[in-house]
Amino acid sequence: MLISGGSGVVPLMSMLRTRRLAGSQVPGRLLYSSRTAQDIIYHDELDSLVARMDGVSVVHTLTRGAPADWRGETRRVDREMLAKHVFPAPQNPRIFICGPTSFVEMVADELIALGYDEKTIKTERFGPTGEKDER
Asked: Is the N or the C terminus of the chain less surrounded, counting Cβ atoms within 10 Å?
């Protein structure tokens, strides 16, 4: 189970590519939050991975408006969305989350509140360090 916010999809895409190259049939799902449809990184490649029908699915959510024909989610990731789209906790899925610090912390906290084992949740975050650039 992969969960990304914005450009956090980049390292997770590497995992999906590796899965494809290995010929894996293990189910994999990406929950990917973007601001707008134009902000979806790897849009065509993600569609191609899903079209292979080898067990990969992608759920998109847009946080700042959606086109009229949009079929994905249309809000920030929240507990309800995680409960709906993440593999069930009893299946003990390995979960990888990548995105801005606040996104990653919120998603991890909500997953733990939903009963997921924190030992199976791996995170990678990015954002400001708080340090001034001395250039």
From this structure: C
Tally the domains of the chain. Answer: 1
In a domain, 32, yes or no: yes
pTM over the 0.85 mark: yes
Strands 2-5 and 95-100: parallel
Domain ranges, residue 71: 2-126
On whether residue 135 sits in a domain, the answer given is: no
Could you tell me which residues come within 8 angstroms of residue 125 by beta carbon, excluding any fewer than 6 positions away? 98, 99, 100, 101, 103, 104, 105
